[in-house]
């Protein structure tokens, strides 16, 4: 076993630990790097492969392989970073406990674990999971209990989850937008507003914001949006995403599933004032902008609008 206690700023690298009760244990130790180690136990599922205990913060746990332990990783600390690790064939791949908070877990592989891939308990809060692979957990990929809340997941697919009452986890998705004209060509300069439930997340000037209109590729910069929430239940609540698009006098709002690219088609302008050569989408807009003696041409089609003509 490699044990650090009250020790900061160390590097533990390129070691192999076999059949140790604990592989690597950090206790009240911060700003350490633990990387490229292999920690293997002979499948009697005892103790912990890697453990962070006490106030062990700002440690980097990178590119390690752990198998055969009760807990591949047990984290009882805050604000640590875990990346590129493999937790294979343990009882529990990862365990967050004793109020662990603000840890970031990124690009790790958690597979073939006997019970749970990721187990969160003891009121642990606000841990992040980015771009991980979880597979072949015998019971649950995620198991969250004991009022553990505020966690979120980005691009970390899972098959099975249990969320106890009082606990929660949020699923975020990158929102991708593709705006085209009636011929299927990308269209720039379209005003956009995106809402997550009642919260405005993106808004161009027309809609009262300062974000950019669509670019030459008919899109905007992708950004994360809340998609689903497991809130005290293993059944998620889908969070509605609505998108409004505007071109000239055409405005349309629809609800979409942000897990797929959101496609919007802007229809052709189809009403012409022959004097001004101005095209609009609606007949009423052309009438409102016309002067006495103007001629308005309307293309063949269906117009869903009421028309009012006044002196």
Automatic annotation (TrEMBL):
InterPro entries: NosD_dom, Para_beta_helix_rpt-2, PbH1, Pectin_lyas_fold, Pectin_lyase_fold/virulence
Periplasmic copper-binding protein NosD beta helix domain mapped to chain residues: 4-155
Residues that span the membrane, as ranges: none
Classification via SUPFAM superfamilies: Pectin lyase-like
Coiled coil: none
Alphabetized NCBIfam families for the sequence: para_beta_helix (TIGR03804)
Protein name: Periplasmic copper-binding protein NosD beta helix domain-containing protein
Species assigned in the record: marine metagenome
Organism taxonomic ancestry: unclassified sequences, metagenomes, ecological metagenomes
